[in-house]
Amino acid sequence: MTQIKQSNAKTDQKAPFQADHVGSFLRPERIKQARLRKANGDITANDLWEIENEEIAKLVKKQKEVGLQSVTDGELRRAWFHLDFIQELVGVKFIELDTGLTFNGEKTKAHSVKVVGKLDFDNHPVVEEYKYLHSVAGSHTAKMTIPSPSMLYFREIGEEEKEFYPSKEALFSDIAEVYKKTIKALYDAGCRYLQLDDTTWSLFLEQESRSDLVLSGGILKARGDDPKEISELFAKTINEAIVDKPEDMTITMHICRGNYKSTYAGSGSYDAVSKIIFGDLNVDGLFLEFDDERSGGFEPLHHVNRPDLKIVLGLITSKFGELEDPEQIKSRIEEAAKYVPLEQLCLSPQCGFASTEEGNILTEDEQWAKIRHVVEIAESVWK
């Protein structure tokens, strides 16, 4: 049996928690049917909102029952983890493309966004979405998840944008200001735990060479972008966006490699960007994917240079229902603790269960078994 030196950290620690989760859950069939009925004009937007409220309340109750300390709305109101938020920003337009993105042979819906005016945050639905989550969270910590500022890199670039933003620097400067407003609005609504979800770092991973993966087609090269320059721009934008974060608010980032119908979009170790993400990002915690060989080893964690930075190890896969051997997971936590003290480590699934409304290929029972697995292993490690 793996022996891990026990940490003195308490289970009621500040977020992120020793047993945590990325946030999205499989959409109930009732939600899927309601969204179709709304699209067909059979029910109103308010009808859909009420149905979503009822299903979110059930979801929050279940999260509490399986032992989580943080609860989310499961992103049940969203079709995509990022586009639903981004398209509601001032100056952004939702668009249809000719074809979707490819994830190991799986095609997504052909949806995207483009910038058509000066960006701003005003009357955004995420505030009311958070308020409802807050109202049903009770004594548990309500965590809101939104796409990272960097996610606006994945957009169609049209002539309208060039009129308002002649340079990437000008665009991302305004993005930072938009996120400052977002964070303030959510904080004023009661949010104390915010997660930024970000797939852009996969652009820089060293093994991006497979032609069937969405991030392997040379996006940076096609746009004439220098990887070092863009990675520094992303980090600068994120740090500027959160610079005014209140002391009692926790902001974490999930660095994702893609998650669509149990497939992925990126592979490679964190080496290529480890100095930036572990040493330069001023977030309070990082949710990292370490569920299989695609993520490489824990060695890049030696770049963690802050005792207050929590590292959430995504060692439990959300892509498939089979449960991992708990002793192997404990052994991997022990290995990670060679680079980062155990009291700075946490455990979670590597990603959400439904980054898009299609969801991963597992059942709801298997989903909850995964979450219980995280909680039970964490309780054993951090006694």
UniProtKB/TrEMBL annotation:
Origin: domain of life: Bacteria
One record GO biological process: methylation
MF (Gene Ontology): 5-methyltetrahydropteroyltriglutamate-homocysteine S-methyltransferase activity
Annotated EC: 2.1.1.14
InterPro entries named in the record: Met_Synth_C/arc (IPR002629), UROD/MetE-like_sf (IPR038071)
Keywords: Methyltransferase, Transferase
Domain Cobalamin-independent methionine synthase MetE C-terminal/archaeal: 21-379
Pfam families: Meth_synt_2 (PF01717)
EC main group: transferase
CDD domains: CIMS_C_terminal_like (cd03311)
Entry-linked PANTHER family: METHIONINE SYNTHASE
NCBIfam families: PRK06520.1
Protein name: 5-methyltetrahydropteroyltriglutamate--homocysteine S-methyltransferase
Species in which this protein is naturally found: Virgibacillus byunsanensis
